[in-house]
Amino acid sequence: xxxxxxxxxxxxxxxxxxxxxxxxxxxxxxxxxxxxxxxxxxxxxxxxxxxxxxxxxxxxxxxxxxxxxxxxxxxxxxxx
Length: 80
Fold this sequence. Notes:
The chain is mainly α. The protein contains two helices and no strands.
């Protein structure tokens, strides 16, 4: 797992959200039917991709566990 400071995550996420909102407003002005279709389909696509996100979290956890088990002897030898 990556340990990032909370401040960097919040500022990056907030800036990305504002940028997405700006792109949506531009799309809405240029082609409002397409913007409305995107607005309706986004939650459906998000729900369809949710199992893959959960699977990715589980695989990441298993790989972290395997890594910890493999590095345990090295950590024990360094402690002596």
